[in-house]
Design goal:
alpha+beta, five-stranded antiparallel beta sheet, 25% strand, binds magnesium ion
Amino acid sequence: MITRKSQREIELMKTAGHIVALAHQAVKNMIKPGVSTYDVDQTVESIIESHDATPSFKGYHGFPSSACTSLNDEVVHGIPSKSRIMKKGDILKVDIGANYKGYHGDSAWTYAIGEIDAQTQKLLDVTEKALYEGIKSARVGFRLSDISHAIQTYTEAQGFAIVREFVGHGIGKKLHEDPQLPNYGPPGKGPVLKSGMVLAIEPMVNIGTHDVKVKTDQWTAVTSDGSLSAHFEHTVLITEDEPVLLTAL
Ligand code: MG
Ligand code: MG
C-alpha cells in the first residue's frame, strides 16, 4: 500500500532529509586521497547522531555500518572498512539514511576523489542528470513508470546502462515502503502519483553491462564486467506543485 504523508509527517521527513543532506555535505568536505571508507562512515554517523537522529542503515537486515560506501565498480551496499583507502581517480558512492523521530530520509551521491578521467566524469554527470530527469515526472497525475521510463531513456541515449537488480522505493516510517520504483520500463504503468507520496528516486548507472553480482561478503554489489558504476538518489515529496527534494540543502 502506498501511503500519503500528513503535514506532520512531511515536517518530520523534511528534518530527516535535511540531516542526510548535512551528512553528505560533511562527506564532501572530508573526502580525499588517503581517507578510508571507514573514516567516511564515522563522519556520517557523528553528523546523524549529533542531530538527534539514528542511521537508518545500521542493523538494517544486519548491515553493519551507518553509510554504504561503494568504490569504483561497486554499485551499492559496500561496507565501510579501514583497509579501503581512497586514491586519486577513484569514485565513491556514499548512500546515507537517517531516522528522525520515526521517519526516514535517504540519499546517495557519487564523489570524485581528486581528478577523474573524462569518461568517468561523464558517467557521474549522466547519472546525476538521470535522477533529475526522473524527478521531472514525480508529479500529480503522472504514473509511477513515467519516472522509470524518463531515467532509462535519458541514460541509454547517453550510451550507458541502467542497473535493474536494485530499484527506488517509497519511504516514510519505513526505509523501504511501497511502491518499488524500477529505473527502466515503459511509460504510463503503475499507480497514479498523488500529493503526499514520498519516493526515493535512485538511478544506478554502469559504463558497461547493466549486469551486477554480489560479492562473497553477501552485501557488496559489483558490476559483472568490472566497469565503473555511479549512483545518485534524492528523497522526493510529490505535491500539487513542483516536486520537493527533501534531501537537498
Ligand atoms: Mg539510499
Ligand atoms: Mg534508497
